Amino acid sequence: MMKTKLFTILLSLSAVLTAFADPGSIRGSIKDAKTKEALIGASVLIEGTQIGAAADIDGNFVLSNVPAGSHKVIITFVSYKTKEIPNVRVESGNTTVIDTELDEEGTALQEVVVRGTRATNTEVAVISEIKQLKPIAVGISAAQIQKSQDRDAAAAIRRVPGVSIVDNRFVMIRGLGSRYNSVLINDVITPSSEVDTRAFSFDLVPSNIIDRMIVYKSGSAESPGDFAGGIIKIYTKRRPDQNFMDAAATIGYRGNTTFQNAQTHTRSGANWLGLWGADQQLSSAFPTRSADFNVLSDAQRASFGRLFPNTWALKDLNISPDLRFALNLGRRFDIGNVDASNITNINYSLTNQRADIAFSLFQNGVTANEVAETYSDANFARQSRIGVLHNWTFRFSPVFNLEWKTLFNQLGNTETVVRTGQKVVDGYDALNYSQRFENRTIVTTQVSGDHKFGELTKLNWISGFGYTGRWEPDWKRVRFQRVTGSMGPDGQLSAFTVVTPTDPTAAEVGRFYSKLGEKVLTLSVNGERTLGNPTDREPNRIRFGIYGERKDRDYSAHFYGYNSIGNSSAVLSQPIGSIFSAQNVNGEMGGLTIRDGSKDLDSYQGINNYGAAYLSGDVNFGSKAILTLGFRGEYNNQQLLSVIVNEERELVNNKIFIPLPSVNFTYKLTDKQNLRFAYSSTLNRPEFRELAPFVYFDFNLLAEIRGNTTLKTARVQNVDVKWELYPSPNELISVTGFYKHFKNPIESFLLPTGSGLAYTFINAGSAENYGVELEIRKGFAGASSKFFQNLTLIGNASFINSSINLGDFIEGPDLGGTIQNYDLTGLTDKKRPMANQSPFLINAGVYYADPASGWQWNVLYNVFGQRIFAVGNQNNPTVYEMPRNVLDLNISKRIKQNLEIRLGIQDILNQPVRFAQDFNRDGKIGSDVTSQTADADQDVRKFKRGSYFTITAAYTFGRRTVIP
Fold first, then answer.
1. Per mean pLDDT, which range of 352-356, 460-464, 525-529, 826-830 is the poorest?
2. Tell me, what's the pLDDT at 93?
3. Contact 209, 192 (CB under 8 A)
4. TonB-dependent receptor plug domain: which residues (predicted)?
5. Mean pLDDT of 948-964
């Protein structure tokens, strides 16, 4: 009896001690016993408890807070045999590892077709991917984008830590301009979508075709070497899990725009599809060279001028609401033994933006706010876009997949600016017009294959073709003026008269035509070899590959200005719709003719041959530490050609090979906590436009931009340190510190001029960029309140500092295009922050989703710090873009299983877009911009975009599905 009581006491005491012991954890991996593929979503449960988890995209799972003792683990997955693992011992404070495999069910499930799809578009999948990447990275999933209701990649990516957006389409990472980013779509480098800068226009990619976006902050051997801010990889949707079809329609209202009156100009062609008519093209009858054209008589040149359509007259317009439509189709079927699938997305949008822009230039003498020119711009733009995504996937076997992906975007932008104001320094009233149509096309198509050779070797290849086209057919500009206060014979103010200089200049009356076409051919091959046992938790791997690219760009531009013949005042004071009619462009005394203001250098051809090879490998130090060493070598041959006096001349021929080593080290403090270190050597090449000695006039800023043929490739050294914690599969806390050193960084430079603004591109001596980034993603799955269980908090902040040292001399062109050395003493600041670099970036969001009721809502916040918009000098102070606090609200409700209604309110605060001039040159913009004291600063450009309201109805035909 005594022994029985003693045994009972000891057993009870053991149970009590076990209950109060620190819990342990179980982790492991689950794979298919035959194919060795990860079983994504397999369920793991401890019998008799509520402790369970689902396997992630690599088949890995973690069970936390497991009581110490022996347990039975049950693993299940649809169409696979359930597996029970008894007597799994968990010790206090320790982790037990289980790596196991499941067998498919037998004949009882013969009719079940198993198609394993690797989910990559969920928040958990993206967090898991980032956690397992060797380089330091952040990202955003399609699921989060859908919650935010962001319309395109530009709006979505600003939710990522360290990322901000310029002009609603260009991405800045860590405060560095878009020239320091590399953009890849489905692992192929995208061509620049812009003429004047190296930049990819992210508004070309609609959000509903995106699977995920990953932003790499550190380099690796596998990634392109041309970056300093980040590498942005956009992955489009691949394959559906079943057949589906859904459609969505959106109507949008913008304050200050919708139902307001505006003036616009007419264009032939299907502008609503982003297309233009034949009459907007420059006739092939025009001589190619200005020298051949301008020797013709006035009458002969006027006969060419009459070939231009007289489309100068403006029309009044009441602005309609914005419209957007999207259609999504997904199909899966079998072709023999081949599993085939297709995803097709078609989207269309027609949107409007009206703004009243206050624009001023100052004399910049001793007294602040001495106005030289002051204007009010009535700006109206209508943008159309049609986009198509068409992806095919063919799964021939578990070891061979073939994909064909095509992305097409056609965008048209019709912009009309009516500028009124005064040129105070000359005593003139001004009335100027800009009538512009821009057409852009971007096409990428890729064929890729994934191969597995046994359990140890993988190989993939991608061949791609890309095309970027940009047309500005018939950009019409005209400047009227009259003496301020002058009166006519009738006692009324005098009529405005068109200014027609003898030699055409881009700032005066005329018509501008430009055409850019860029073709890119790519081929990449990547391999991976696992060393040792592939079922090891962290097996060693070697990666290798090559990348080749051929880029051809053709750019041509022509500008034709109108000239008076004798006294043409009777013609030049007519309304804008009749001045340039055929009867006035007659080549006779008192009439008008035209001259060609183009130069041979306004057209160029660019050729770039780029080849790279890399090798990297992992070295594991036990289960805690992994070191990845990489080496990439890049060869680049950049050529720029132009036809001058009927002879093709080579303006640039830069051949360069650069070795790019990289190191990435990860130390696992715990299963949920990592410490990372990264070093990489990268570069930054000049773009064709930055090299081409072509002068482009920006009407909105009244500035000229010209290239510099002497630009060199910049070198960048990058160091990153990151601590990251993953409390649960969809939670994340991280802190990252970074430092970058630049040699020969490429920056914009304001040329010294007597009047006006003229920019070029130069190599500075050196620069530094460093800062810290914080990110948190917090859920409340364990909360007792249902409200908090459905709540997720997301926030990130970046604090950055930069300094650029121009040196004592820089090399660049003068106003005539001649290359010279500029002594910077007394000309400009030799040290300043880097252009476009923000000292801080903050994003925050509160997301709520209740699956039971179908309600979702979120509140999102974004702000960036004051950053240099236009570099200044001693005569013209630097212009800064000022911070804007942006607040968005999105609400959606699912009705049954087929219909979802969404309400979005963007930019609720509607703070002004503001560009201010640092008159006192202290690097800060004060709040008092009207004072005339020496400490005052000056607003150069200011306007409001208007808050934006959208209502969307999305309908799924048939059964509603979630598409990976």
1. 826-830
2. 66
3. no
4. 136-230
5. 72
Binned at pLDDT 50, 70 and 90, residue 774 comes out as very high
Q: How far apart are the first and last CA of the chain?
A: 65
Residue 110: how many other CB atoms lie within 10 Å: 8
User: Given the structure tokens 């006692």, which residue do they identify?
Assistant: 491
Residue 155 to residues 585, 887, 935, 949: CA-CA distances in angstroms? 47, 13, 37, 15
Q: How many CB atoms lie within 10 A of CB 522?
A: 20
Distance CA 762, CA 817 (A): 14
H/E element holding 646?
none
How far apart CA 795 and CA 172 sit, in angstroms, is 18
**CATH code for the structural domain at 311-557+603-957:** 2.40.170.20
Mean pLDDT on 310-319: 94
Summarised one tens digit per residue, pLDDT across range 789-843 is 889 898 889 899 999 998 888 898 888 888 889 888 888 888 888 888 889 989 8
H or E stretch at 144 = helix 142-148
Q: Which residues make beta-bridge pairs with 611?
A: 548, 635
**Token digits for 450?**
């994934």
Domain 22-109 coded CATH 1.10.600.10: no
d(CA 881, CA 900): 38
CA-nearest of 928, 946, 943 to 360 is 943
| Spatial separation of the C-alpha atoms in residues 229 and 157, rounded to whole Å | 14
Token readout for 873 is 């000098």
Burial of 39 (0-12, 13-18, 19+ CB in 10 A): buried
Write down the domain spans for the chain: 22-109, 123-249, 311-557+603-957
Mean pLDDT of all residues belonging to the chain: 85
Structure tokens at 76: 């299940």
C-alpha to C-alpha distances, 670 to 25, 55, 230, 618, 623, nearest whole angstrom: 11, 19, 28, 20, 10
Q: What is the pLDDT of residues 171-195, one digit of tens each?
A: 778 777 777 888 888 888 876 666 5
Same fold for the pair 22-109 and 311-557+603-957: no
Judge contact between 53 and 63, C-beta under 8 A.
yes
What average pLDDT does range 19-28 have in this prediction? 67
Fold of 123-249: Ferric Hydroxamate Uptake Protein; Chain A, domain 1 (2.170.130)
Cα separation, 168 vs 201, whole angstroms: 9
Q: Does residue 50 surpass a pLDDT of 90?
A: no
Q: 337 exposed, middle or buried (CB, 10 Å; 0-12, 13-18, 19+)? A: exposed
Write the single-letter amino acid at 572.
L
The tokens of 349 are what? Answer: 């949008």
In sign, the C-alpha dihedral spanning 835, 837, 839, 843 is positive
The pLDDT value recorded for residue 11 is 45
Taking the C-alpha atoms of residue 355 and residue 358, their distance in angstroms, rounded to an integer, is 10
Would you say 618 and 628 are in contact if contact means Cβ atoms under 8 Å apart?
yes
d(CA 916, CA 928): 11
Q: pLDDT class for 19, splitting at 50, 70, 90?
A: very low
Q: What is the distance between the alpha carbons of residues 774 and 772, in angstroms, rounded to a whole number?
A: 7
Looking at residue 202, what DSSP letter applies?
Answer: G
Q: Measured between alpha carbons, how far is 185 from 163 in angstroms, rounded to an integer?
A: 18
> What is residue 723's three-state secondary structure?
strand
Examine the pLDDT at 107 and tell me if it is beyond 50. Answer: no
Q: Residue 665: which pLDDT band, with cuts at 50, 70 and 90? A: very high
Query: Which single residue is written with the structure tokens 């990297």?
Result: 616
**What percentage of the chain exceeds 90 in pLDDT?**
42
Q: What is the pLDDT of residues 708-719, one digit of tens each?
A: 999 999 999 999
Give 683's Cβ-side CA count (13 Å radius). 18
